[in-house]
Design brief:
single chain, about 400 residues, mainly beta, Neuraminidase, 5-stranded antiparallel beta sheet, globular, aminopeptidase activity
Length: about 400
């Protein structure tokens, strides 16, 4: 068997950010590769079919990612920085029945948590300083000449640099003309959103005081018609994630830091009509999400939780394993899939399940899982066959 060479690493492909179309057959994902000559990463959006296993490239911008499928499955939105000298990130609309992608809007603060409300309107988060015009793109001074005025902490962010007082703000936008409308019912630094099944309300997670309570985030439910917001819980709870079950019920990931910062978060079922919050299966002390570290992922993804038919499907970390579990609103848990390596992300539509997985000696690829049978759908890293890899040995320690 051959040994792995340093230059072989340039052949490696990472895949992730999976999304199944409403038809339950087709899907999109992001593939990331390395450009040795330009010394940079390239990412593009691909599509695939779970029945015939065929995959094909959809975009060629080289900086494309974060695809979001429209409710009718006829188009996708994605974020890109196609211009090398771009002063912001662009949101593009790609019709899947044919035609080129169209630039909807470019914003210096970028786009995150892009969510369809209907076929013509989306919600999203962009970052800008309070009072700053998010649509105004100014020329930046060179880093060596720029003067930073620091008014509050934190003033730097890992991978971003100086934050310049920028925080997340929530906006509504028409796709036809890019017209933006701020939603100001919730303040602070907005981190993520989730739109209700009927698109009448949105769950908002925000850090309200990043100086005094930097690790505490609040959950609000905002009525999109009236603009009114309702806070869920109080200052004793910090929220990480929220997924709608019905128009009046949500599953939320929360923590009370009972054991300090390393306290595992737990699931809460929230009834919005009765305002009741019920912790679920907290005695199992599960870590909801994937906490396994890896330097060969390459594709970030928010698809670690999804509600299907009233059950919360979530990745959980259990020692050296990543499991995909399903939980009902009574806290009863079923295991759907178990990996001896890492399940990075997944999506479910009906009985169709899609996931990206890797082990310590098998590279990241996409698989389908139907009735317990796993099928490999991509082979971007097939070049690694015949290469000898060292298999690491596990060990355990007892925490105090």
């Amino acid at each position: 068997m051959k040994k792995l060479k340093l230059e072989d690493l340039y052949k490696y492909s990472a895949v992730g950010d999976l999304h199944i179309f409403p038809d339950g057959e087709n899907f999109v994902f992001v593939r990331r590769t390395m450009d040795k000559k330009e010394n940079q990463y390239e990412s593009n959006i691909w599509s695939g079919n779970m029945k015939n296993g065929e995959v094909r490239q959809l975009t060629w911008g080289g900086k494309d990612g974060s695809p979001v499928v429209s409710p009718d499955g006829k188009s996708i939105l994605f974020v890109s920085r196609r211009d090398k000298d771009a002063k912001g990130s662009g949101l593009y609309l790609l019709p899947l029945e044919g035609g080129e992608s169209r630039l909807v809007k470019t914003l210096k603060g970028g786009f995150s948590s892009v969510s369809w409300i209907d076929s013509e309107t989306v919600l999203f988060i962009t970052k800008h300083a309070p009072g700053e015009d998010p649509e105004k793109i100014e020329e930046d001074d060179p880093p060596e000449k720029k003067v930073y005025e620091i008014e509050k902490i934190p003033f730097v962010s890992n991978g971003v640099g100086f934050t310049e007082n920028r925080v997340g703000h929530l906006y509504k936008m028409k796709l036809e003309n890019g017209k933006m409308e701020p939603i100001t019912a919730v303040g602070g630094d907005i981190e993520s959103i989730a739109v209700s099944p009927e698109s009448k309300r949105v769950a908002v997670i925000t850090t309200e005081d990043s100086e005094k309570r930097p690790v505490w985030s609040s959950l609000y439910i905002v009525d999109l018609d009236s603009g009114k917001s309702t806070r869920i819980g109080d200052d004793s709870l910090s929220f990480y994630n929220c997924q709608w079950s019905t128009d009046s019920e949500v599953f939320a990931v929360a923590t009370d830091f009972e054991k300090g910062f390393p306290t595992n978060p737990f699931i809460m079922h929230v009834d919005l009509d009765s305002h009741s919050l019920t912790p679920l299966a907290r005695e199992r002390d599960l870590y909801f999400g994937n906490s396994l570290n890896s330097d060969v992922r390459g594709v970030s993804s928010n698809t670690s939780m999804k509600v299907v038919e009233g059950r919360l499907n979530s990745l959980v970390t259990a020692g050296s394993q990543i499991k995909l579990i399903s939980m009902d609103k009574e806290g009863k848990v079923e295991e759907i899939a178990v990996s001896s390596g890492s399940i990075d992300c997944f999506d479910i539509v009906g009985e169709e399940l899609l996931l990206s997985e890797m082990t310590t000696i098998e590279p990241l690829e996409i698989y389908s899982l139907v009735k317990g049978k796993k099928k490999k759908l991509t082979s971007f890293n097939s070049w690694m066959k015949g290469i000898k890899l060292s298999k690491p040995e596990g060990f355990e320690v007892e925490a105090s």
